[in-house]
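REVIEWER CHECKLIST
Item 1: Sequence provided? yes
Item 2: Single chain? yes
Item 3: Sequence as submitted:
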Amino acid sequence: MNICQIVRKGIRCQFAKRDGKCDYMGGRCHPVVIECSECENVGTFNNEMYCKIYMSPDAKWFGDGCPMCTNKKVVVKEVQKINPLKASKRAAKARKASKEK
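Item 4: Structure as written out by the authors:
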C-alpha cells in the first residue's frame, strides 16, 4: 500500500497510487455519515471527518451498521432452552387435539 497525498495525507491507503493520487471513485475518500461521528476509527483531515478504514463509510451503514464501528452496542439475545421431551409431548398433544376437531 502507498501513502495518500490527497485527503488523508501520511496515512497508508489501498487506493493510493505511487504518486499519492487516489484511485478510488471520484479520486478521493468520502466524509463520514452521522452514525460514524463517535467511532474511534474516525480521523479529522483537512477540517473534515473521514474514516480511517473505509473510503466510503455511507456504503457500510446497512442492516446492523458498519462492521468496524466501535460505538454501537452489541445486543445478544438469550435463547430459551426447551426440553426436547416436553416439546415432543406438546406437539403430540396438539396433533391429537386437531384430529379430534
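Item 5: Key structural point noted by reviewer: Strands lie at 2-3, 12-13, 42-45, 48-51.
Item 6: Recommendation: ____
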